[in-house]
Amino acid sequence: MRLALLTDLHANREALDACLTHARAQKADQYAFTGDFVGYGADPAWVLDTVMEHVARGAVAVQGNHDYSVTHETRPQMHFEAREVIEWTRGQLSGEQMAFLSGLPLTQEFERMLFVHASAHDPVKWEYVTGLEPAERSLRAARKRMVFSGHVHTPALYRRADDGRMGSHVPVPGTRIAIAPQHQYLVIPGAVGQPRDGNSAACYALYDDVARELVYYRIPYDNGAAARRVIAAGLPIVFAMRLIEGI
């Protein structure tokens, strides 16, 4: 199975379309979406329809914190501009789309894999996995060889060796990474819809469970068009600038 891993789509139609087009060219035969389909961007309905179509064909999907906020009372921890987009998003979605978001699980398992938006240690706390210690907590809680998550908007890869030692790897786009069967891995592909590592190109990854290889990709897309959509929708301009600057 060649599994395309996409996370933090954030209502960015142009970025998602570019990543899916690239994944098809790489002969992906299954898809996993690890949350935050809405928020920040101007096309939540189109993005959700696209995810729902993939799920109907067998794709994995789990709930992210922005998805959760749209269908629940907005959390006070969320900053003002993000809350503003959440309120706007509620008015853009159909009843079917809202039901889809509210019905998404926090985690999903498939064979030796676990999918979660943030940390598997306590998924609904939405912990940011940004170092070895939180990565180890997530891996220990997951009890699966391969853990796929998102939330941090930056590509990352963590490994827990069979002797318990933790390590990290900075992924190089397009480079094949061999996956050792005796180790445990936490894969964070980076954000499709709002990268924050200084590179505005969209992120996704592809995992081949037969060849036991993982590849991270950066996909240039028309981020100017996506930014103009944010402005035209009347959403905070900071979210348009993030798409241009990648921060």
Task: Furnish the topology, listing elements before pairings.
Blueprint: E1 2-6, H1 13-25, E2 30-33, H2 44-56, E3 60-61, H3 65-71, H4 80-90, H5 95-103, E4 107-110, E5 113-116, H6 132-142, E6 146-148, E7 156-160, E8 166-169, E9 176-178, E10 184-188, E11 202-208, E12 213-219, H7 223-232, H8 237-245
Parallel strand pairs: 1-2, 2-3, 5-6, 6-10
Antiparallel strand pairs: 1-11, 4-5, 7-8, 7-10, 9-12, 11-12
Helix pairs in contact: 3-4, 3-5, 7-8
State mean pLDDT (0 to 100 scale): 96
Distance between the termini: 33 Å
In this structure, how is the largest beta sheet organized?
A: 6 strands, mixed
Question: If you compute it from the alpha carbons, what radius of gyration comes out, rounded to the nearest whole angstrom?
Answer: 17 Å
Low-confidence segments: none
Elements, N to C (H/E): EHEHEHHHEEHEEEEEEEHH
The dominant shape is: globular
In what range is the share of β-strand residues? 15-25%
As laid out across the biggest beta sheet, the strand order is: 3-2-1-11-12-9
Count up the domains: 1
> What's the level 1 CATH class?
Alpha Beta
Q: Looking at this structure, what is the CATH superfamily?
A: Metallo-dependent phosphatases
Quickly give the CATH architecture.
4-Layer Sandwich
Number of helices: 8
Secondary-structure class: alpha/beta
Number of DSSP strand runs: 12
Helix content: 25-40%
Can you tell me the CATH topology? Purple Acid Phosphatase, chain A, domain 2
List keywords for this structure.
6-stranded mixed beta sheet, 34% helix, 247 residues, Purple Acid Phosphatase, chain A, domain 2, alpha/beta, 8 helices, 12 strands
